[in-house]
Design brief:
alpha+beta, Beta-Lactamase, 6-stranded antiparallel β-sheet, 35 strands
Length: about 1000
């Protein structure tokens, strides 16, 4: 019972004992002694409610005399006096702390179980652990109602000390994150004052209390983070202490319930399992990737690099390497990580004798992995300056078919870094490495065989892709050096006596000359002559190289075609070399390809040479027919001969007019002028001898031939000479010669046959030139004669014109007086005078017509007539009228067959009338009594056709072409019988020709003749 000011008026024993006091000691005390300052606001609120409502029921925290806090359930009422005035308060309390704790524990357990269920679901479905863990920590932190949750991982420091680093974090609102703080990375337990933590957590204990209760050495680290109380739970992965989870409370001190601790340990265990599962998955993935690499590539270096990469994913290390054993030496073939220690050069070149390295020898004998926690404490560890940084070592032997081939090693600069679990992982990776090495070796063997076949295939392709010998040989040599890892190769050609250089490759470059010329008693000539392969593994020990300082290896391979050695291929190695059977077999195959290449190239060269020869002959034949310039043609022939037969000099000699000496009219070569200046007598020298004998000849050693002569100002040197005579109509006209100087290939029968063919072409050219010269002379003479004939014709025509002009007037007078006498105009004539006067008149008329014909012919030739449209129909009808009386007097029928509406022609009316007069007059003259003459006039296309047909005596067939010649008569008796001098038909031809027409005749003796004239229509 208390008064209105809160002073105690009465307590029973239970109340006093509940608070730790004796009953009498509380009277007069104030109620505040039962509450902390933080609790007083709640108490005052309850008192106000009592005064206002008269009562209060509720839970209030109390403090015992010893300071412990407990929860009570209070029922208080207001006290009044008889007047109803408030005088105090009375109430009862009951301690409900344990009940509340039980209820709270139950609720906490339910809350945490619900949280753990959610966390379990999160962890079971986790895909990305780094993303999932912060969410898990958040769930735990919110459920535990803490300020912050941290997850720390343990690892070793640079000196082997145990450190912790903050990896994951969750913070409540208002709490600053610390995951990026460098102070919480690599935090040393011992040096940081947390050595007690290592002992407690490593054995599975938890740490929980208020910070103020922690040892003084531990408080600075916690207070720096603002922590008031903390719960620390260890994490174990694969049985090893992995790290811890801390639950930080930054506002009030907190007493952790055991149920909270137990449930959070359960959550920590689940997180540990997930981390362990994640590590196992990473190991399996690394192993799977390593296994996948084995199937994805057979390149050993690439596989080993990938294995080292995957090892480092699951076995943390500073450096790793793969060692392989050759004989008793282990050398590093692939490595990573050593560059950070500056020892990469050492690692790349160092090797260890297995018997002298205790760690390697132990694994080699036991075939088991090895872990050296601290190399400084390992007996017999090799003290190598470049390895002094290495403090912890783990390795596993690489075993193939029960034999240790090498080691998979991981190194760390931290003592005690590796454990047996790491060794177990390394064993698995070492097994993968062994499989990779075995696969690679099998692949290398297959690849080597494939490379051999490919080299042969490529060499074969070279043969089919190119017929040029040089590139084919060079390609084969490149295949040999690449396949056999040789240092040099040569190919020499062999003609049965002498070796000549073909191709060479050394110092990784194609060479244009041999390293040295073959010695007559050396390896190359020995192989060529014997046709047998010679293998020299060490020149110092072989009799063919006695006296030489070389210590190399070489194999000489004969190149055979059809049983004949056509060359030698040498393959050399720097230093001694043991030739394997497979190596020699492949080299033999490639040597066969080289031999085929030589054969194909020679066939190709011969085919091409024959084609060039044929083309040259065709070209020469064209030149011979296209030009008659003899020097040009002969120089072309000589040039072809020089090019195609690979000669140094080429000459064409011709016999001079005296028939006793030869001169070169064509000379090609370095001494062409000297050769052209020289004169050879018939029979002198080889050239003169061939000219004299007419037989082609080859002299391959002209310096030893007694017939040879030296041309002035030319050098005396060995050489070959080939000559062929130039013959036309069995007469030697000259000689073609070719020469090769100095060291040379000999001429052969094929060369001589070709030169003989060229000589025939040259002979034809010479004969053509001579014939052309003769024809030119004849043409000049013919032109001169034609000009003389034309001049004579001109003079004749001029004479006829002059004579006709001079005779026309006298003849006219004679004719006039004769006719007057004959007609009696000048008086009567005596009977004996009539006949002479008639003869004079008749002959005068004949001479007049003759002069008119001459004048008409000359006029037609000169085309000096006047042209105008002429109606031949009207002209023909007038003509028939004029001749009708004469025809009737002779008893000859004159028939007209003239078409109507015929077009006009363009011509000289007088000349065209003369044509009709002559044709009809001739028909009347040569047609006997009782015969007929028909005149036809028709149109044929663009011409008018005039035909005069008679039934007269006819003309012999062999004389039809001559009847139109001047002064030609079929028979001399005809002129005497019928008269005329043979100018009528010639005049017809000249006139019609001048008018652009034509005239022809058809006739049969005794049946008559038909003369046909065509004239173009006037348009």
């Amino acid at each position: 019972m208390v008064d209105l000011e809160g002073n105690i008026l009465f307590t029973n024993r239970a109340f006093a004992a509940m608070h730790g006091y004796a009953p009498g000691k509380l009277i007069g005390k104030h109620l505040s002694i039962f509450h902390t300052p933080e609790q007083m606001p709640s108490v005052e609120k309850a008192n106000r409610q009592i005064r206002e409502t008269g009562e209060f029921s509720g839970e209030i925290w109390h403090v015992r005399r010893d300071g412990t806090i407990f929860l009570t359930l209070m029922h208080n009422s207001l006290l009044r006096d008889e007047a109803g005035n408030q005088i105090g308060m009375i109430g009862t309390i009951r301690d409900i702390t344990e009940r509340k704790r039980a209820e709270q524990a139950l609720r906490t357990r339910e809350r945490f179980l619900e949280c753990l269920s959610g966390v379990a679901q999160q962890l079971l479905s986790v895909i990305d652990l780094p993303k999932a863990l912060p969410q898990v920590l958040r769930s735990l932190g919110e459920t535990a109602a803490v300020s912050r949750v941290h997850l720390f991982e343990n690892h070793l420091g640079s000196e082997g000390e145990l450190t912790a680093s903050l990896r994951y974090e969750w913070c409540a609102p208002g709490i600053e994150p610390q995951v990026d703080s460098p102070n919480l990375q690599n935090y040393p337990y011992a040096d940081g004052g947390l050595a007690r933590w290592v002992e407690t957590l490593a054995r599975g204990g938890v740490i929980t209390r208020s910070v103020t209760d922690f040892p003084a050495s531990e408080r600075p680290a916690l207070e720096a983070q603002g922590i008031r109380s903390i719960l620390i739970i260890p994490l174990f992965v694969s049985g090893n202490w992995y790290g811890f989870i801390s639950f930080d409370v930054c506002d009030l001190p907190r007493e952790w319930q055991q149920v909270e601790i137990d449930l959070l340990r359960t959550a920590a265990s689940a997180i540990s399992n997930v981390i362990e599962r994640e590590q196992a998955i990473r190991r399996e993935q690394a192993l799977a990737r390593a296994a996948a690499t084995l199937t994805s590539t057979l390149d050993l270096d690439q596989v080993l690099d990938h294995i080292l990469e995957q090892v480092s994913r699951v076995v943390p290390n500073d450096a790793a390497n793969v060692m392989l054993i050759e004989d008793d030496r282990a050398h590093i073939v692939r490595w990573r990580g050593y560059e950070r220690f500056g020892v990469e050069e050492f690692v790349s070149s160092a090797f260890l004798h297995v018997p002298e390295a205790p760690n390697l020898q132990q694994m080699w004998k036991s075939q088991e992995p090895l872990v050296i926690s601290d190399t400084a404490a390992y007996p017999g560890w090799m003290d190598i300056p470049e390895q002094r940084w290495l403090r912890s070592y783990a390795a596993a032997p690489i075993i193939v078919r029960g034999q240790v081939l090498g080691f998979l090693n991981v190194d760390s600069a931290i003592p005690g870094f590796f454990s047996q679990s790491h060794a177990a992982i390394l064993r698995t990776f070492a097994d993968h490495t062994a499989a990779a090495i075995e696969n690679a070796r099998l692949f290398e063997e297959v690849s080597r065989r494939v490379a051999e076949l490919d080299a042969v295939r490529r060499a074969s392709l070279s043969l089919t892709s190119s017929l040029e010998l040089q590139p084919v040989l060079e390609a084969i040599l490149e295949h040999i050096l690449r396949l056999a890892s040789a240092d040099g190769a040569h190919v020499f050609f062999y003609d049965g006596e002498r070796l000549t250089f073909g191709a060479a490759l050394w110092a990784k470059e194609i060479q244009r000359k041999p390293f040295s010329e073959p010695r007559q008693k050396g390896l190359t000539y020995t192989v060529a002559r014997s046709g047998e392969r010679i293998v020299v593994s060490d020149m110092r020990e072989h009799p063919l190289f006695q006296g030489q300082s070389w210590d190399d290896a070489i194999v000489g391979l004969p190149l055979r075609v059809g049983g004949q050695v056509v060359g030698v291929m040498n393959v050399s190695f720097n230093g001694p070399h043991a030739f394997s059977k497979d190596e020699l077999r492949v080299l033999g195959l490639l040597a066969d390809q080289a031999a085929i290449a030589i054969r194909n190239a020679r066939l190709h060269q011969e085919t091409r040479r024959q084609a060039r020869k044929l083309a040259a002959l065709i070209e020469i034949g064209h030149d011979v027919s296209a030009t008659l310039d003899l020097p040009t043609v002969l120089e072309r022939i000589a040039t072809h001969a020089q090019d195609l037969l690979e000669a140094d000099d080429s000459e064409v000699y011709l016999l001079q007019e005296n028939g006793r000496t030869l001169r070169a009219i064509v000379a090609l070569g370095d001494y062409a002028d000297e050769i052209k200046a020289a004169t050879l007598r018939l029979g002198e020298g080889v050239v003169g001898h061939v000219a004299q004998s007419g037989e082609a000849e080859i002299v391959n050693h002209v310096e030893s031939d007694p017939r040879s002569v030296q041309i002035s100002d030319t050098p005396e040197e060995p050489g070959a000479l080939m000559c062929a005579p130039l013959i036309s109509k069995d007469e030697v006209m000259g000689v073609m010669s070719l020469a090769r100087a100095g060291e040379h290939d000999p001429f052969d029968r094929t060369d001589l046959d070709f030169l003989t063919g060229l000589a025939r072409q040259a002979s034809i050219a010479i004969e053509n030139a001579r014939l052309f010269a003769t024809e030119q002379q004849y043409a000049v003479e013919l032109t001169r004669a034609l000009e003389q004939q034309q001049e004579a014709a001109r003079l004749r025509n001029e004479f006829i014109q002059n004579v006709s002009h001079e005779l026309r007037t006298p003849l006219a007078l004679i004719r006039g007086y004769a006719e007057l006498l004959d007609d009696g105009e000048l008086g009567s004539l005596r009977p004996d005078q009539h006949e002479p006067v008639a003869v004079i008149a008749r002959r005068t008329r004949m001479l007049t017509r003759l002069m008119e014909n001459f004048t008409a012919i000359l006029g037609a030739e000169g085309q000096d007539s006047q042209r105008e449209p002429v109606d031949l129909v009207e002209m023909a009808r007038d003509l028939l009228t004029d001749f009708r009386e004469a025809a009737e007097q002779k008893g000859i029928a004159l028939v007209s067959q003239i078409a109507s509406d015929l077009p006009l022609v363009l011509g000289d009316p007088l000349h065209l009338r003369r044509v009709m007069d002559n044709l009809v007059g001739n028909a009347l003259k040569f047609t006997p009594r009782g015969g007929s003459i028909t005149l036809r006039l028709t149109q044929a296309d663009k011409d008018l056709v005039l035909e005069v047909a008679d039934t007269g005596i006819g003309i012999p067939e062999e004389q039809l072409e001559q009847v139109f010649e001047r002064f030609y008569q079929v028979d001399g008796s005809m002129s005497r019988r019928y008269g005329g001098v043979g100018l009528g038909l010639a005049l017809v031809k000249e006139i019609i020709k001048a008018h652009g027409g034509g005239v022809s005749v058809s006739s049969r003796v005794g049946q008559g003749s038909t003369f046909t004239v065509t004239l173009p229509i006037h348009t």
